[in-house]
Design goal:
- By secondary structure, the protein is mainly β.
- The protein has six helices and 27 strands.
Length: 377
């Protein structure tokens, strides 16, 4: 009697799913009803994989385009929760978006779970507007600013991070760093309003949630601020950054093996393209930063996402820093993307095409934020 794949034992099939990537798990579930039952219960997480790159939205179908880096393959996915949304950040496998009416949202693109955010504090949206693309936006004092709503959708948010995966901790926080005003605001799940944070620096380059505290680093400054989020909401510690950079350089907090690192990204001030990186690790005993020349063979992915660090595989370079635009509005301001990889061992940068051919138009769509994220089914 011929064997039937659908008759394989459930325990065996569960073990098999633990050896598969996310996409292979989805394909696994399409084999038959029994396999679909096993896949649906997600008893085993997919094997670790490289991040995906969130691309633009198809203007006709509104489907969202993604690049699966592990497979070097593009996917076009119908996600109604992302229709018309401008992606301004990613954290813990969730995307943070802003729509044309300047409303915020936190979305898991795989499960389609969604959190609607309260009205942003720096803006008071006018009522009874029929079109938002050409209407001027207003700040909290009612004073007209130069951005239209369409422009503000792209320039409003400089960075957005989540404290936790909402499915693992329902009392999570969302922290926004707003562009222009450079205001920091937090929203705790379930709250009706934002809490605006006060801090002594006028401009921040990055924010990062680490061990119960919010870390913020100044742009062009020499201090890192540690903020007690959710309790006093005040700065409880300052760490000297030992780095007086130009305002056009950017910084990212990264955690590797439990240690806090600070990555500085240097840009050419004429071309607005990246030309160097500096990586330092914090010595908690002496509260000083120490420069390092490798990240233990890992690969780091930075941009307007919360940094992602993984073990390299396949097409990925060990000790490589993969970067996308420094901010969601980069293409809009500088008329080109800044995407590439920095090899820490060789000290060399390989840039992707800023204009390119038809393939680059898919890979680097104009007027769209390119955001790394780790799928979290």
């Amino acid at each position: 009697m011929a064997a039937c794949w659908s008759d394989l034992a459930t325990d065996l099939l569960v073990d098999v799913t633990g050896l598969l990537t996310l996409m292979d798990q989805l394909r696994f579930g399409s084999v038959c009803r029994h396999w679909r039952f096993v896949a649906k219960h997600k008893a085993r997480p997919p094997v670790p994989q490289l991040p995906w790159l969130v691309l633009g939205e198809d203007k006709k179908t509104k489907k969202r385009n993604f690049l699966n880096l592990s497979e070097q393959r593009h996917y076009s996915v119908d996600i109604p929760e992302l229709y018309g949304q401008f992606v301004c950040g990613s954290s813990h496998g969730w995307l943070v978006t802003v729509d044309i009416k300047i409303n915020g949202r936190v979305v898991n693109p795989l499960t389609r779970e969604c959190y609607e955010l309260p009205l942003f504090p720096p803006f008071s949206i006018k009522h009874n507007i029929t079109t938002y693309t050409d209407e001027p936006a207003y700040d909290s004092a009612g004073k007209e600013i130069t951005f239209t709503f369409k422009e503000a959708q792209r320039a409003l948010v400089l960075k957005a991070v989540l404290s936790h995966d909402p499915r693992e901790n329902p009392d999570f926080y969302v922290v926004f760093l707003f562009g222009g005003t450079n205001r920091l605001a937090i929203w705790k799940a379930g709250d009706k309003d934002w809490t605006v944070l006060n801090y002594p620096c006028r401009a921040m380059a990055d924010i990062f949630y680490f061990e119960g505290y919010l870390y913020a680093v100044a742009t062009g400054g020499n201090e890192v601020y540690v903020i007690d989020v959710g309790r006093s909401n005040c700065v409880v510690r300052r760490i000297n950054n030992q780095d007086k950079d130009c305002m056009l350089n950017w910084k990212y907090f990264v955690v590797l093996d439990g240690k806090l690192m600070l990555v500085t990204r240097y840009q050419n001030h004429e071309t607005h393209s990246t030309d160097d990186f500096l990586v330092r690790v914090l010595d908690l005993m002496g509260m000083k930063w120490r420069e390092i020349d490798n990240i233990n063979g890992h690969a780091l992915f930075v941009g307007n996402n919360s940094p992602i660090i993984v073990n390299p595989s396949g097409c990925c370079v060990g000790n490589g820093i993969y970067f996308t635009d420094v901010a969601p509005s980069h293409y809009w301001f500088f008329h080109g993307h800044d995407v590439g990889v920095y090899d820490m061992v060789e000290g060399a940068i390989t840039l992707s095409s800023r204009d390119g051919d038809d393939r680059d138009d898919v890979m680097l769509p104009p007027d769209a934020a390119l955001t790394w994220f780790t799928p979290s089914p």
